[in-house]
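debug: dumping io for the single-chain case to check the tokenizer round-trip. Nothing else runs in this session.
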Amino acid sequence: MKSKQSSKTMKVAILAGGLGTRLSEETESKPKPMVEIGGRPILWHIMKYYAHYGFNEFFVALGYKGEVIKEFFVNYRTLRADLTVRLGNGAVECRGCTDDDWTVHLIETGMATNTGGRIKRLQPYLTETFMVTYGDGIANIDLHMLVAFHKAHGKLATVTAVRPPSRFGGLIFEGDRVKEFTEKPQIGEGWINGGFMVLEPGIFDYLKGDESNLELDGLEKLAKAGELMAFRHEKFWQCMDTLRDRRLLEKHWNDEAPWKVW
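debug: decoded output
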């Protein structure tokens, strides 16, 4: 049975516990969601995007170097503010503190736990329709349309389908003549799971423990059961798997980031 709560109160779970081995240049000292774009962790960009649409209660599934994420949020209000510290009584006065009105639950989900297992550990908190995404990908998806799509079809799960940017230049032929050369077009490859999911609590029936894989044990089996739908997103989407990806996101941020809607 689908939940009828307002989308404005829908909780957001973010997977932030993986090792990020393909970005080892950055992740030796921090988890991948804490790698910075424009001086802010990509995790912050993701949360800022959700909050713009009114989704401001987050459950961050921690694992590798989760303490770095905890320290960031414990000190969040003061990190970029002017402070006056009165050493006599320990009082701290903050000027220019951030006013982001978020509730952030930082949940330890184990070092070696798989993606499905991390979501399974959040089950006590996610008792109604909820959202899930990965802590290393950003997009300019209309989240209200995504939720409306999910509510309309009545299935257990919705994934956002994206077509990742091609890593190579594209050729458009006219016979053997190259009519047009496109430098790494946004629409390049086939449709893939881009995260930004909406799930019903029924997903937990498919996730049995820490070894569960969200994609293989959850989404794949849901698809076979006819319970998985795809919300197609044709516009901007970018993950951050490699140093090249991070540099590309940094370039977007310095130009005009498609996801900067706040």
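debug: round-trip ok. Residues 243-255 form the longest helix (13 residues).
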